[in-house]
Design goal:
This protein is mostly helical and about 400 residues long. It has two domains: about 290 residues, Rhopdopsin 7-helix transmembrane proteins, CATH 1.20.1070; about 70 residues, no CATH class. Strand 1 and strand 2 form a beta hairpin. Helix 4 packs antiparallel against helix 11.
C-alpha cells in the first residue's frame, strides 16, 4: 500500500514537446473544446498549404528567401497532420492511449522533431535576412537556391538528431503514452537545442537587423554631397543605372548597390576644361529620379520582409515560452520534491501550454496574410481559383 502511495504522489517526467504527460487519465474536455481544437488543426493545414502554393505558383513570391518559408510551412503542416490529431485523440479519450505502442514512440519523436524544426527554420531565416541587409552586394551573389536547400537540409537533420532519443524514451504503459526520463537530462538538453539557444541567436540577429535597417534608411534619406559630371559620361552612368535596376528586379528582397556605396558617386572624374556648363548635370539629377526611387523601394521591401519574419518569430516565442519555462524550471523542481510549489497544477498547465505552442503552426499563415500584401493577394487568388 505504501509503494502504491509513493507512486501516485510522484510527479511525472515530461517530454520537451508532449502535452500528455500525466500518469493518470485526465478528464475529457467538452465537445466545444474538441470542436475548437479541430478547427485550429484544419485552419493550420489549409493556411500552410496556401503558403506553399503561393510561393510555387506566383512568380513575385518565388524568391530564395521564401524557400525557407515554404520549408517552415511544410513543418507546420506536418505538426497539424501528424502530431495534433493524435493529441486531440488523447484529449477525447481523457489521456488514454489505446493505439499501438510503436505509434506512441513515433508520435513523441515527430512532436519533438517538428517543433524543433520550426524554431531552427526561424533561426535560419533570421540569419539569411541579416546577411541580405548588411551584405547586399556580396551575399546576393552567393544567395542561390542551392545554398538555401543546403541550409534547409541541415535544419531538418539537426531536428531529426534531437528527436532520436525521444523515440526510445516514449513508451506505452497502462494505456498511457508517456516518456521515461527520470533524470531530466534529455529534457534540459533538448530544450536548450530546440528553443533557448536558437531564441538567443534570433534576438541578437534581429537587434542587428534593426540597427542596420536604420543606418541604411538614413543613407537613403540623406544622400552624400552633390557632384557634377560631364555630358559625355551620361551614357556610361545610364548603362550602370540600367544594370542596377535589372539586378534589383532579379532579387526583389536584395538591397541596392548605390545605397550601399555612397562614395561611388564622389569618385567620378572632374569636369574637363572647355565643356559648356549646359552640358554639365548634377549626379543626383540623373540618379535620384530613378535609382534613388528604386533604392527606397528595395529598402522598403527589405524592411517589410524583416518585419513580417520578426512578427512570426515573436509569435513563436510568445506561444512556446510558457511551456519551456514550465518544462525546464518548474517540472524538475516538482519532480525533485521541492517544497513551496503548487505542483498539482503542473499537468494541467502542460496540456494548456502545449496546445498553445502547437497552435502557433496555424498562426503563421494568418501573420503572412495580415502583414504581407503579396502573400495576401496570392491567397485571395488561390481561394478564388484564379491563375497567376
Amino acid at each position: 500500500m505504501e509503494d502504491s502511495q509513493v507512486t501516485d504522489d510522484q510527479d511525472p517526467v515530461v517530454s520537451p514537446m508532449s502535452a500528455m504527460t500525466t500518469t493518470a487519465p485526465s478528464p475529457s474536455p467538452p465537445v466545444l473544446g474538441i470542436s475548437v481544437l479541430l478547427l485550429v488543426i484544419l485552419a493550420g493545414i489549409l493556411g500552410n498549404i496556401l503558403v506553399c502554393l503561393a510561393v510555387t505558383q506566383f512568380r513575385t513570391l518565388r524568391t530564395v528567401a521564401n524557400f525557407y518559408v515554404v520549408s517552415l510551412a511544410v513543418a507546420d503542416v506536418l505538426v497539424c497532420t501528424a502530431v495534433m490529431p493524435l493529441a486531440l485523440y488523447q484529449e477525447a479519450t481523457g489521456g488514454m492511449w489505446y493505439l499501438p505502442g510503436p505509434l506512441c514512440k513515433i508520435w513523441g519523436a515527430m512532436d519533438i522533431m517538428l517543433s524543433s524544426s520550426s524554431i531552427l527554420h526561424l533561426c535560419a531565416i533570421s540569419i539569411d535576412r541579416f546577411n541580405a541587409i548588411t551584405k547586399p552586394i556580396k551575399y546576393v551573389a552567393k544567395r542561390t537556391a542551392k545554398m538555401a536547400f543546403t541550409r534547409i537540409a541541415i535544419v531538418w537533420m539537426l531536428s531529426a538528431l534531437v528527436s532520436i532519443p525521444a523515440f526510445f524514451l516514449f513508451q506505452k504503459e497502462n494505456d498511457l503514452c508517456v516518456p521515461n526520463d527520470t533524470t531530466n537530462v534529455y529534457a534540459w538538453c533538448s530544450s536548450s537545442i530546440s528553443f533557448y539557444i536558437p531564441c538567443v541567436v534570433i534576438l541578437i540577429v534581429y537587434f542587428k537587423i534593426y540597427n542596420a535597417a536604420k543606418r541604411r534608411a538614413r543613407r537613403v534619406i540623406h544622400p552624400g554631397p552633390v557632384c557634377t559630371i560631364s555630358a559625355n559620361i551620361r551614357q556610361h552612368a545610364a548603362v550602370s543605372q540600367s544594370s542596377f535596376q535589372d539586378e534589383g528586379r532579379s532579387n526583389q528582397l536584395s538591397s541596392p548597390a548605390i545605397a550601399d556605396r555612397p562614395d561611388s558617386v564622389q569618385s567620378v572624374e572632374p569636369v574637363p576644361p572647355g565643356v559648356p556648363v549646359r552640358d554639365v548635370v548634377p549626379v543626383t539629377a540623373m540618379l535620384s529620379t530613378r535609382a534613388e526611387a528604386q533604392s527606397r523601394i528595395s529598402l522598403a521591401r527589405e524592411r517589410k520582409a524583416a518585419r513580417t519574419i520578426g512578427i512570426v518569430v515573436g509569435a513563436f516565442i510568445v506561444c512556446w515560452l510558457p511551456f519551456f519555462i514550465l518544462h525546464s524550471i518548474f517540472n524538475p523542481m516538482c519532480s525533485s520534491g521541492h517544497e513551496g510549489l503548487s505542483c498539482e497544477a503542473v499537468p494541467t498547465l502542460y496540456r494548456i501550454f502545449t496546445w498553445v505552442g502547437w497552435c502557433n503552426s496555424s498562426l503563421n499563415p494568418i501573420i503572412y496574410t495580415v502583414f504581407n500584401r503579396e502573400f495576401r493577394q496570392a491567397f485571395k487568388k488561390l481561394l478564388k481559383c484564379r491563375k497567376n
